[in-house]
């Protein structure tokens, strides 16, 4: 027969109780319960002590009993437009980290950009999760607003004061990148846009156009369609190569399209940044490892996911009904090799 596992000190893991955790952590049973259930009214040092004691004793709360007593599933639902690509991988890494900090599980669903599948995914979450993290990229997404579960929208158009939302200042990030490219001496700046009807894409295009008017009023807007993936960036790059006059610089609405464009340029023998400067948006991990390294607008994608998850956990713990004002992360301009100034590139 396989021997029963034991915690440090020789105690049978199966017999470890919440009282044992409280004794080792030198706190009350109520404090242990609040810490393990993700309540916000526990000091960080105390929370860390409780988790350390639980790990030492290998204590695992009985999920079924805890769900019955609290009427909670201890699970967060995550509904995303896709799971493919570095952006979503980083986003999920942050969400998972925050959930694990609070002893919570995740139920993840993707609707592949289909609004009807999005609705089906949301309906399937009911009764199975305590709250929802939803990324809905559409300019208008009334189906998302479901009052049956606490919800936090990520990078979505907020529809009402009672909706908790966390996003990115896409407009400000794009505005800063265009200013940088103009200051580098570029005037013919093409923009590879994201999908029509996508909120992030709309805001980045708006930032590009308004910055161009501000910093290069004589320059014409030059927008090429894209779809936030490498293939559409490659197609856009080929279209720009076929233009009667090539741009000085290309600003892609995300890094994946910028990498596709870079491949098209490299295959045609067009050098970046000597012939054409190039920039993206997001700062996915790959952006710093390509050659030339990609100038971009950094969104701390993992932190975006973690902060959204913590917002939802706080709403669940505190029973918040009315959401705070929507919050936005401020992106950071990251200047690398691909956007060198014309003076430097021509030297």
From TrEMBL:
The keyword Lipoprotein does not apply. InterPro entries: HTH_LacI, LacI/GalR-like_sensor, Lambda_DNA-bd_dom_sf, Peripla_BP_I. The keyword Transferase does not apply. GO terms for molecular function: DNA binding. Residues 16-70 form the HTH lacI-type domain. Keywords: DNA-binding, Repressor, Transcription, Transcription regulation. This is LacI family DNA-binding transcriptional regulator. It comes from Lysobacter niastensis. The lineage of its organism: Bacteria, Pseudomonadati, Pseudomonadota, Gammaproteobacteria, Lysobacterales.
